[in-house]
Write a structure and sequence with these properties.
With 259 residues, the chain is an alpha+beta fold. The protein has one domain: VTC, catalytic tunnel domain (mRNA Triphosphatase Cet1, Chain A), CATH 3.20.100.30. It is built from six helices and nine strands, in the order βαβαβββααββββαα. It has helices at 18-27, 53-59, 103-112, 122-135, 202-211, 220-229; strands at residues 5-17, 32-48, 64-73, 82-90, 93-101, 138-152, 159-169, 182-183, 189-196. Strand 4 and strand 5 form a beta hairpin. The longest helix is centred in the middle third of the chain and has 14 residues, at 122-135.
C-alpha cells in the first residue's frame, strides 16, 4: 500500500487543441521529458453535500474552497490502491492531501461510515473525516479523462499535463466506467495544466506569451454541475447537448502576473 502524500502547489489551466499541444511540445522539447508515469487514465468520484453546497461555493470564486474526491489511476484492480483526497485552495495556492486505501474499504467508509484500519496517515484521515462528517457528503459525480504527463528537466517542482476525452456520469456512481458516460470535449480539445510550487521559469513564460496561451478557471466538476443545472446535458448516450468551450472565464496571461 502506498504511503500518504501531501502536495502544496499552484495549478494553472490552459485550454488548447491538439495542434497547439503538438506545437507547444515541439517548442518545449529541450525543457521537458516524459513523466515517470507518462500516460494514463484518471477516474474520480466527487463527493459533495446533498444539495451540492461545496461546488456551489467553489463556483462563487471564494478566497478559500475545498473538494473531496476518491481517485484511481485507470480501472481499479484487486490489490491496486485508490486515493481519498481532500483538496484545499487559498487564493492561488492549492494543497492536496491524500491517503491510499483499498477500493472496498474506501466505499465502506464513505458510504457506510466504517473507518478504515490505517498504519499511517492518521492525521490526514482525521482531516478528511472531519470534512466527511461536517458536510455529510454523498457521491455526486464520476469524472474520467486521459492524461499525458511531462516533468521539467531542470525545475524539479514543475509538471505539465494534457487532459483529453473528459467524460462524466452522475448515476450508478463508482470508480468503474459503465459505458454510459457523456463526453464534455471533442476529440481535438485539450486541457493543459501547469503544476508548480515556485515561479514560472523564463522559458515557459516566454513560450506561453509567444503562443498567446491564457489561463482559464475551468473546473471539470464545476462545469458538469453547471451544465446539469442548466439542462445542457442530452439524454443521448455519450453526448452533451452542445459543445462546451474549455476557455471560459479566461484570465490574464501568466506573463503579466506578478511573479
Amino acid at each position: 500500500m502506498a504511503e500518504p502524500e501531501t502536495f502544496l502547489r499552484c495549478e494553472h489551466k490552459y485550454p488548447m487543441n491538439r495542434s497547439l499541444m503538438k506545437q507547444f511540445l515541439e517548442a518545449a522539447e529541450d525543457h521537458l521529458v516524459p513523466d515517470q508515469y507518462p500516460e494514463y487514465d484518471l477516474h474520480s468520484i466527487y463527493y459533495d453535500t446533498e444539495d451540492s453546497g461545496m461546488i456551489i461555493h467553489c463556483l462563487d470564486h471564494p478566497i478559500y474552497k475545498e473538494k473531496l474526491r476518491l481517485r484511481s489511476y485507470g480501472e481499479p484492480e484487486a490489490g491496486q490502491p485508490v486515493y481519498l483526497e481532500i483538496k484545499k485552495k487559498f487564493h492561488d495556492t492549492g494543497q492536496k492531501r491524500r491517503i491510499a486505501l483499498e477500493e472496498s474499504e474506501a466505499y465502506a467508509y464513505l458510504n457506510q461510515g466504517i473507518a478504515p484500519h490505517l498504519s499511517s496517515g492518521m492525521q490526514i484521515f482525521s482531516e478528511i473525516d472531519y470534512l466527511v462528517r461536517r458536510k455529510k457528503v454523498v457521491p455526486k459525480m464520476f469524472i474520467a479523462y486521459h492524461r499525458i504527463a511531462f516533468c521539467a528537466k531542470e525545475e524539479a517542482d514543475l509538471r505539465i499535463t494534457f487532459d483529453s476525452a473528459i467524460r462524466f456520469r452522475n448515476s450508478q456512481i463508482s470508480l468503474h466506467e459503465s459505458g454510459k458516460e457523456k463526453y464534455l470535449t471533442s476529440p481535438e480539445e485539450i486541457l493543459m495544466e501547469v503544476k508548480l510550487s515556485g515561479r514560472y521559469p523564463y522559458w515557459l513564460s516566454d513560450l506561453l506569451s509567444e503562443m498567446r496561451l491564457f489561463r482559464s478557471s475551468f473546473s471539470k466538476y464545476g462545469t458538469f454541475y453547471t451544465m446539469q443545472e442548466q439542462n445542457q446535458i442530452s439524454e443521448d448516450r455519450g453526448s452533451v447537448s452542445k459543445s462546451v468551450p474549455l476557455n471560459h472565464e479566461s484570465e490574464e496571461s501568466i506573463c503579466s502576473l506578478p511573479y
